[in-house]
Amino acid sequence: MRAPTIPADAIKMSPSKLSLINPDLDPCERCFWLTHKHEVKRPSGIFPSLPSGIDKQLKAYYGRYREHIVPEIKGKLQGKLYGHIAQLAVWQNNFKGLQLYIPKLNMVFKGAIDDVLLNDKKQFSPIDFKTRGYPLKAGSPDYYRLQLDSYNLLFKYNGYEITENAYLVYYWPECVNAAATEASGVMHMKFITHIQEYKGLDGSFALSVLKRAREIINMERPPASHPTCEYCIGANKHVETVRECMRKPEKPTQKSFQFN
Ligand code: SF4
């Protein structure tokens, strides 16, 4: 089947861009609108490089277990790690990944996976690694359902069968293994592994958010902002304060202090 021709004005979307309007997370549609229509982004803090460094090492570590499963998650997931290394490398590549063009929305949706399982029925289940500093807290919002459903949508619309399951594999540090460190002279950090399984992710949730994304991008005027967002509250205060100061008449410049 020939891939459809993608128009030059097609909107480029990814699971991370879509997360701005993730209905699971009390989103702000104005921020999404500003980002996509006017390239005005919310300020971002300093991004720590440790999680992406660990992600890279995890991918290499999982790479040694193709058509098997890594020891710490053995028996806890359905299927084996997908064995076609060249294809997996494309799907893991942020510049390539899995791609889908949706003509009705004139939108290209692209996402790169961390890894994927294949079961005996040739059905895929994506895996995403999450590194944290501390154990998971009960009752925290579901940050990643949309991301995982997006991967299932991408697999499905690229003609692959999916289980409708997906997995988050969390790693967080527990302690330094002093005995192993002393014996080898190299720091050994012990990580706890925790698996969170998702079921019933058929891509329809991600598709509904993509449709909403198109509606927001089509809006001529900005949608409402989030009422308690500190960024907008802070930015508005800055603007008001500067305006207020500018309205005051300028005082003559004081003469600099003279010694004599
Ligand atoms: S309220 Fe926050 S999230 Fe919304 S537009 Fe303002 S900065 Fe962005």
Q: What helical percentage do the residues reach?
A: 25-40%
The structure class reads alpha/beta
Strand neighbour order, sheet with most strands: 2-5-6-7-8
Q: Give me the number of helical elements.
A: 8
For the biggest sheet, the summary is: 5 strands, mixed
Could you give the distance between the termini?
Answer: 90 Å
Identify the overall geometry.
Answer: globular
CATH level 3 topology: Lambda Exonuclease, Chain A
What's the number of structural domains? 1
- Tell me the total number of β-strands: 8
The CATH level-2 architecture is identified as Alpha-Beta Complex
Characterization of the model:
There is one protein chain. The chain has 260 residues and is α/β, with parallel strands linked by helices. It has a single domain (11-133, 141-246), classed as Lambda Exonuclease, Chain A. It is built from eight helices and eight strands. The protein has a five-stranded mixed sheet. A three-stranded mixed sheet has the order 1-4-3. The radius of gyration is 24 Å and the shape is globular. The structure holds iron/sulfur cluster (SF4). Residues 28, 30-31, 34, 42, 225-226, 229, 231-232 line the site of iron/sulfur cluster. Iron/sulfur cluster binds at residues 28, 30-31, 34, 42, 225-226, 229, 231-232.
